[in-house]
Amino acid sequence: MNRYKKIGYLAFATASLVSGFSFVNHLIFKLDCVKENLYSKNSNYYQWRFGKIFYTKQGKGQPLLLVHDISCDSNEKEWTYIVDKLAKKHTVYTIDLLGCGRSDKPKITYTSFLYVQLLNDFIKNVIGKKTNVMATGKSASIVVMACHFENEYYDKICLINPENKKNICRVPRAKHKLGKILLECPILGTSIYLYCMRKKNIKKRFETLYYHREDEISDKLIDCFHESAHLQGSCSKFLFSSLFHNDVNVNIKDALKQIDHSIFIVFGSREDGYEETLKFYENLNPAVETTIIPNAKRLPQLEYPEQIMKVCDIFF
């Protein structure tokens, strides 16, 4: 076999391997979305400048916007156990943030300022009135910054397990840059993303981060979050790479000091380091009110919906 034939065989084998990985990745994305677990009867879309934004609307009364945590598997089903009850007294909006759930997932870098713009544009152009807001985890910082920039759009704000001081201050470093480049590679990055977003790993997130009572985790919720992470195929990985690169983090110290809106913060007693986080927010703004839900972790609105409803009935 001469030299050129060897090169030809090597090129053919490489191309076949790459094509095989690409086909398998594409097939996994397709198969993981066939059940359509994320169906909602009140589906709507807002045509934002960076893509279509999925949202639901129901009920009557003062507007209340529910904003889920920011991760690749997050979506508006985070509020599924309380949204109907809230709709008895409020016009309730739930939203899938850009890059999440049924909203578009453009191949861009996702930043905190992008989400600040999204929330303010959504309230201005879709809701059209001063709005109460509830937000979880990383989205809590986004809501605080959005209120800081456009305070006339916001009324009362309820934050569920907002991020701690360490997380909101994290910035991109060299190792994060290399990781972002790797994750955005067409074949390898997609394969890494699919491995990280396996149903087994999402279930583990529920067991270690979202819930304290593992026996309360439903298979239906796992399926919803798993499907959310796979809609729109490999485009899903760009939020993943941005989160790895710390692009969505935002330091809210100055903003929280200056906000004079009513702010209520809910902590789960099983959330790691919640005592330190509570002191951090109270020191920045002494007017902040807080409550603690015993034996709850990151998503008490799923694990203890009755307790969250009590908070809503008192605060909103």
- Percent range for β-strand residues: 15-25%
Largest beta sheet, briefly?
A: 8 strands, mixed
Instruction: Give me the count of strands.
Output: 8
- Oligomerization: single chain
Write a structural description.
This protein has 316 residues and is an alpha/beta fold. The chain has a domain at 43-175 and 248-315: 3-Layer(aba) Sandwich (Rossmann fold). 46% of the residues lie in helices and 16% in strands. The protein contains 14 helices and eight strands. The chain has helices spanning 3-31, 83-86, 112-127, 138-149, 165-168, 174-183, 188-196, 199-210, 219-228, 237-244, 253-258, 274-284, 300-303, 305-315, and strands spanning 43-48, 51-58, 62-67, 90-95, 131-136, 154-160, 263-268, 289-293. The chain has an eight-stranded mixed β-sheet, sandwiched between helices. A hairpin with a 2-residue loop joins strand 1 and strand 2 (51-58). It is globular and about 80 Å long.
